[in-house]
Amino acid sequence: MNAYICVYRQINPPPISIRDTANAATKNSHLQQFLNEYQDSFYDWGDDPSFFSAKYMLSDVNRATWGVCRRDVRADLEKGDVVVFFCGSETKVGGLWCYYFVGFGTVRELVKPRGLLWTDPRYKAYRTFFNLLTDSQDKWCEIFHPFHKDWDARAKAPYVVFDPSNSVFNIDSPHLVATWSGEGNRETWNRDAKTREIERLLFVERGIGRRLRTSRTGYAHVKLNLLRDGNKFRPGRPLVALTAALRQLV
């Protein structure tokens, strides 16, 4: 069994990316709504994890899926594994990054090959989501610019469907836990009681010295396995107890 911490980024896309994506939105009312809400939201640019799609197309944010980002993590997951998500939000001025605890998802299903999304009736509800990567002909299909040049490699990793009964996401008012001003390799965590409890459960109790950010540039938010450090198991409460405690904090 595995449990990962992953950060997705609510970035400031360049004007050309907004323009080209907006062109695709002229025939897609949900995409237009996404663009209208994005600036003040906690969504990923590309909606992966698919919090917007789950909220508005299935009326339940906990029915989110994950199918584009972190192919190395998706390839390592199994049914029952857990992913804890933080949103790294880039402020519009000053270069400040804010980190929000969004919640956790428990893997219900791993769709592989991806073509099953289009042939298996169990997955019909996801066919209008924005994070599919491929269409019914297994051809590349993206609407958010810039596109992923390595889309085929990303599509080979499973499409993750989270279990709404064992997943809890707060995408409307997630808790701000930390900020990064552009200096050093690590964000600064707040000291309020809720933040300290989240930090204790995920890092301190498990003997983890790092936090969310590990460098100033490049791949700054490296995945983190909560249960294992290489071949060694980390200390701390079992996964079921950990998610039960986190559920109270989302």
List keywords for this structure.
26% helix; 250 residues; alpha+beta; 13 strands
Determine the strand fraction and express it as a percent band: 15-25%
Query: What coarse outline follows from CA principal-axis ratios?
Result: globular
The domain tally reads 1
The total of beta strands comes to 13
Kindly, what is the distance between the CA atoms of the first and last residues, rounded to a whole number of angstroms?
22 Å
Number of helices: 8
Most strands sheet: 9 strands, mixed
| Rg computed from alpha carbons, rounded to a whole number of angstroms | 18 Å
Q: Mean pLDDT, nearest integer?
A: 95
The residue fraction in helices comes out at 25-40%
Poorly predicted regions are none
- Please state the structural category: alpha+beta
Order of helices and strands: EHHHEHEEHEEHEEEEHEEEH
Could you characterize what this model shows?
The protein is α+β, with helices and mostly antiparallel strands. The protein has one domain. It is 26% helix and 23% strand. It contains eight helices and 13 strands. The strands form three sheets. Strands 1, 2, 3, 4, 7, 8, 9, 10 and 11 form a nine-stranded mixed sheet that branches. It has a two-stranded antiparallel ribbon with strand order 5-6. A hairpin with a 6-residue loop joins β3 (82-90) and β4 (97-111). The radius of gyration is 18 Å and the shape is globular. The relative contact order is 0.18. The mean pLDDT is 95.
Describe this structure in a few short sentences.
This protein has helices at 15-24, 29-38, 51-57, 71-76, 116-119, 151-156, 193-204, 239-247; strands at residues 3-10, 65-66, 82-90, 97-111, 133-134, 140-141, 159-162, 168-169, 175-180, 188-189, 224-225, 228-229, 232-233.
